Every structure is written in structure tokens, then in C-alpha cells.
From TrEMBL:
Pfam families referenced in this protein's UniProt entry, alphabetically: EryCIII-like_C
Residues in Erythromycin biosynthesis protein CIII-like C-terminal domain copies: 302-399
Any GO BP annotation: antibiotic biosynthetic process
Domain of life: Bacteria
InterPro entries, A to Z: EryCIII-like_C (IPR010610), Glycosyltransferase_28 (IPR050426), UDP_glucos_trans (IPR002213)
MF terms in GO: hexosyltransferase activity; UDP-glycosyltransferase activity
Organism: Microbacterium mangrovi
SUPFAM superfamilies from the UniProt entry: UDP-Glycosyltransferase/glycogen phosphorylase (SSF53756)
Name of this protein: Erythromycin biosynthesis protein CIII-like C-terminal domain-containing protein
Length: 419
């Protein structure tokens, strides 16, 4: 039996996939602890792991980040992303090291595995001189010698001109990352380390094992990935117990379109409202989720063919869905594609434009190239996906590959190989 410590930043989309891995490790007889925010205690303990709560590190509400990180107030786009990375992921790292050190001194472990933005886990392992594993719960942001910098939502070049563009963009990474240089150096010093001058994309990935959610069909056909990278498909957390909505039978023998704004930045006016307007009056049922369990309504009228719920177990819903309209959250995108569902993606900020670009590159959906589309644009994209069978064929191919990569069980076996 091995002793494992998993760490995840306290976001629903980060904790969920890692609890799937925790459950798989527990099922194999291992002892598992899970370091994250205390509000995830119930979910962590349901996986069979023991919670190690953030203590010195400040917990936060992902739907009100500015309450804990006030520099985010009023910020959008690149400035929002840089401040989010600097204040949430990097600046909290020394306090994470304090928590992890206290837990290590109380009860050591054999293997540490962290999501790719748990900088505190990186610095702790470097300080101790111990190996670690990275479990990627976001689209793979691993730098390489070819293609554009990941995260920009740009497909790799296929001719001399676009490959030159990619090279120029790679050269800009140090410039773009410059605002993060001081926060990273401060975090390293705060953890008792000597600053290394690394950029963010060079600090987060393990050189021992990277278990990446997703699949090669969502990775632009990159051939420059390291030998210690393994794609593992979908890391699907166990569904929460929930009664099915009273309208569930309305889905029987109907075409079903899912609309979801995800679990972060969930302003329904951005995507849900124009999507519902676009689907109004069509011969189909639209299932729209608010992203907040128990909140089963939106602050605006919905069309007669819409059904709304705060939470619907995807394990029950996705087998009935014909098409999904999504904001590009990676976990929800992977879940839909694992069921062979073609997508319309409105990726607005953070990693969402990158997700949208990868879906479009795979042929499994349409990239709306904005997080706030107009109803006409959503409707046109839906028509295109439903009329052209190539989208469903591509989604089926991606889904088959995702399902064949082993998921949480495969990830647990890879981690056990580090014992």
C-alpha cells in the first residue's frame, strides 16, 4: 500500500477530476490524502480520501474571486488572466508550502501528485528535493519547440507563413510573462528557495510524470511531446446524488440540446440567454444549467422549450444529448466529447478560447470566437453542426479515443508506478 497526497487548487473543475483519481487509488488499497480548500470536504471524503485543508493558504470562492483577490475587481481579458495567475496561483504558493510542510512533518507520504497550477506543491517538492507528478485538468499548456504558445487559442501553423508567426509568438512569451516574473521570484523566496528566473509554463510541469486529461485528437497533432507525458482521457468524478428534475420525461424521444455556462464566471447573460433565444420555437428541448445547485431559474424569461436546473447529473443527461452549447470549460467539454456529442463553443476568457480552438481543430464542433455571442451566431452554428454529419463523426472519434485512454484508473496506475 502506498501513501499518496493529491493537491488541487480549490476550484470545482480542479477538485472534481482529482477526486476521481483519489477514488481510483483508494479502490486499489492505497492511503490517500487530498490538499485543497475546506469547502470541498464532503466531496473529498466521498472519494475515500482524507482532507488536508488549506490553512495558512487563503481559501476562496471561485464565483467571487475578487473578495479574496481585490486586484481582480473590474478586470477583463489579459489583465484579468495575469492578475488571476499572480494573486491566486502564485502569491498563495508560499502559504501552501507552509501547509504542506506541516502535513509532511505530521505524516509523510510516498508520492505527491498535483494539478498543473498548484505552485505550492511544486515549490514544496523542490525544497525537499523530491519528485512529483502533474495531473493536468486543463488543456495541455506544455511548451514545445513548435507551434504557438498554448493558451492563445491559435492553431499551429501549417505553412511557412503561419509557422513563422508561431515562432514569433514563442519569442514573445518572455515579454508577455514579464508581469509574472516578480510574483514567481517572490513566491520562490517566500518558500525558502533561490529565484530561478523561470516563466510560469516552465515551472508547473513535472519532469517525472505528466498525466494529462484529454487526448491526442485534442492536442493539434503535436509530435514534440515528452516521453513522460501520458494522455488519460476523461477524469470523471463520481456524480453527486441528486433527484432527477420533474421535467425529465420531457426529454423522451426528443432532440436535446444542452446549454451550460460552466462553474466559473457564470453570468447567464453571456451565453445562456442568447443560446435560449436562438433555440426558442425549435422542435427540440433545451436543457440549461445555472451552475448553482438549487438555483433552478435564470433572472430572465426562458422559452417554452427550455428546461432549467441548477444541477443535472451529466452521467444521466449526456447519453440523451444531441448537441451541447458550452462556454468551453475543459471538464464539461471532455465529458460531452466522451459521449460523442458535437459542440458549439463560446470561449471568452482564461483557458476557454484555447478549448474552443482545440475542439474546432478536431472537427468536433464550431468555435464562436467569443464568450458573448449573439443569438443569431449561436443559431447559425447549431444549424451548421446539426446539418453536417462530419461534426458528429469527429466527436465520435474523439469520444472513442477518450474512452480508450483509461481515465482515473489509468492515472492511478501511473501514479502507483512511482512507488
Amino acid at each position: 500500500m502506498g501513501r499518496f497526497l493529491l493537491t488541487a487548487m480549490p476550484f470545482v473543475g480542479h477538485v472534481g477530476p482529482l477526486t476521481a483519481v483519489a477514488r481510483a487509488l483508494v479502490e486499489r488499497g492505497h492511503d490517500v490524502r487530498f490538499y485543497t480548500g475546506p469547502r470541498f470536504r464532503e466531496r473529498v471524503e466521498a472519494s475515500g480520501a482524507r482532507l488536508v485543508p488549506w490553512n495558512a493558504a487563503p481559501d476562496f470562492d471561485e464565483n467571487d474571486m475578487a473578495a479574496t483577490f481585490p486586484r481582480l475587481v473590474g478586470k477583463k481579458g489579459m489583465r484579468q488572466m495575469l492578475i488571476n495567475v499572480a494573486d491566486c496561483f502564485i502569491a498563495t504558493a508560499p502559504a501552501q508550502v507552509v501547509d504542506l510542510t506541516a502535513e509532511w512533518e505530521r505524516e509523510p507520504w510516498d508520492v505527491l501528485a498535483a494539478d498543473e497550477v498548484s505552485i505550492g506543491a511544486v515549490l514544496f517538492c523542490e525544497k525537499r528535493g523530491m519528485p512529483r507528478a502533474t495531473v493536468c485538468i486543463l488543456p495541455l499548456n506544455l511548451p514545445g519547440p513548435a507551434g504557438p504558445p498554448s493558451g492563445m487559442g491559435i492553431r499551429p501553423g501549417t505553412n511557412a507563413l503561419t509557422r513563422a508567426r508561431d515562432a514569433a509568438l514563442r519569442g514573445l512569451v518572455p515579454v508577455i510573462s514579464k508581469p509574472l516574473a516578480k510574483p514567481i521570484a517572490d513566491a520562490e523566496r517566500g518558500a525558502g528557495l533561490t529565484p530561478t528566473g523561470r516563466t510560469m509554463d516552465r515551472i508547473v510541469f513535472s519532469d517525472t510524470l505528466i498525466a494529462a486529461s484529454g487526448s491526442p485528437l485534442l492536442d493539434y497533432g503535436r509530435a514534440d511531446r515528452p516521453a513522460h507525458l501520458r494522455f488519460v482521457g476523461e477524469l470523471a468524478a463520481a456524480p453527486r446524488t441528486s433527484a432527477l428534475p420533474a421535467w425529465w420525461s420531457d426529454l423522451d424521444d426528443r432532440r436535446v440540446v444542452l446549454v451550460t455556462q460552466g462553474t466559473q464566471n457564470i453570468d447567464p447573460h453571456d451565453l445562456v440567454r442568447p443560446a435560449l433565444e436562438a433555440m426558442a420555437g425549435r422542435d427540440l428541448i433545451v436543457v440549461a444549467t445555472t451552475g448553482v445547485p438549487g438555483q433552478d431559474a435564470f433572472p430572465f424569461p426562458v422559452p417554452a422549450n427550455a428546461r432549467v436546473a441548477g444541477y443535472v447529473p451529466f452521467s444521466e443527461l449526456l447519453p440523451r444529448v444531441d448537441l451541447a452549447i458550452t462556454n468551453g470549460g475543459w471538464g464539461g467539454t471532455i465529458a460531452a466529447l466522451a459521449h460523442g456529442i458535437p459542440l458549439v463553443v463560446a470561449g471568452g476568457d482564461l483557458d476557454k478560447p484555447e478549448v474552443a480552438a482545440r475542439v474546432a481543430w478536431s472537427g468536433a464542433g464550431v468555435n464562436l470566437r467569443t464568450g458573448t455571442p449573439k443569438a443569431a451566431d449561436v443559431g447559425g452554428a447549431v444549424d451548421r453542426v446539426l446539418r453536417d454529419p462530419s461534426f458528429r463523426r469527429a466527436a465520435a472519434a474523439v469520444g472513442a479515443q477518450l474512452r480508450g485512454l483509461g481515465g482515473a484508473a489509468r492515472t492511478a496506475d501511473l501514479l502507483a508506478g512511482m512507488l
